[in-house]
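Please annotate this fold before class:
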Amino acid sequence: MRTFRPAVMAAVAALVLGGVAAAQAAPRGLVEVPDESGRRGLWGALGVGAGGESFDRRDGGGYNGDLYRPTISARLGGTPNRYLRLGGEILGWIDDQGRRTESITSFLFIAQLYPAPRTGLYVKAGLGLGRSEVDFDQGFGVGDTGFAGLVGAGWEVRVARRVYLNPAVDLVQQRYSSRSGQRYRERIVNFGVGVLFQSGR
């Protein structure tokens, strides 16, 4: 037994030293550095949240108080590199008032930038169209269509090989002209959490 232990230790030492020497001898240009973020290929996300809506009639009174209601969102896109995601997003705010339902929806092209890719933190911007609508139980509705913009930030927390938990906060600003010609603005501050799926291809 006494002669066996030194032999095992010598073999282990030889393997370790051999591996170190091989690593040092390998050409640096051929060593592949893995993307630890896993951020590549196609991606999609679903989310829910609470959005504070307020509007400004442009009459000098400014925005009214925030009205918090549920929000839902869906995103889909691609990943040019680990620093950037591009895609489209639909974000909806819903206020069910019994016989009528008010909704504010944004259809956006978005970009998410990851300054420090390993952390999963990102900043976000988007542009597109907005729709403010009121639907009645009688089967008709009224609404306006305008421009929408978004800025936000979030954090992707990896919970599985291709699945991320995604808390985020977004500010959506929409501008409209009503049928009567009156201009007004609406904004939503949304606090949400979602699940993001990454294809990895």
In short: Strands lie at 43-56, 67-81, 84-96, 100-113, 121-136, 141-155, 157-160, 163-177, 183-198. Residues 43-198 form a domain with the Porin fold (CATH 2.40.160.20).
